[in-house]
Amino acid sequence: MTFTAPGLTDTDAKELIDTLQERLSALNDLHLTLKHIHWNVVGPNFIGVHQMIDPQVELVRGYADTLAERIAALGGSPEGTSRAIERERTWDDYSIGRDTAQSHLAALDLVYNGFIASHRGAIDRTGPIDPVTEDILIGQTAELEKFQWFVRAHLENPSGGLTHAGTHTERQAAAAASE
């Protein structure tokens, strides 16, 4: 590396860059997944969900840009290609096509579960090294948790249970929500 942020060693910067690159790829995949849902949602709650998803897409795209710029500020070269997404991917591709709002939202809730848990893992890895990077990830996680709350509000029953409780795959969640 030719430079990094003042006060960071090259070793620490590399660890931050590697963590941020994985999260960048995950964010790029998430915004594509959200747009896929936006295009493929149907049924009685179509317009509300269709309109709820676009602000999430835009914010997630902005988060990707923030992480890419942080990678560059640390002396790295951010990769925003589909090849980078595939290389970094530890998750399955979104598995629901044209389906109801409830089905997509239940599947999306599981996507958010995995995504937020991974972002929290990145917070744990970056915090001891760089509070600036940690702060960026914390802010993103808070907003993503709010979006997940929006999604879950559509899936809750009056006692607070989720229609897809106990499911472990997107397809299972989608099927449980449509029953």
Automatic annotation (TrEMBL):
Highest taxon of the lineage: Bacteria
Span of domain Ferritin/DPS: 17-157
GO terms for MF: ferric iron binding; oxidoreductase activity, acting on metal ions
Pfam family, one: Ferritin
Chain positions covered by the region annotation Disordered: 160-179
Family (UniProt): Belongs to the Dps family.
Protein name: DNA starvation/stationary phase protection protein
Record lineage: Bacteria, Bacillati, Actinomycetota, Actinomycetes, Mycobacteriales
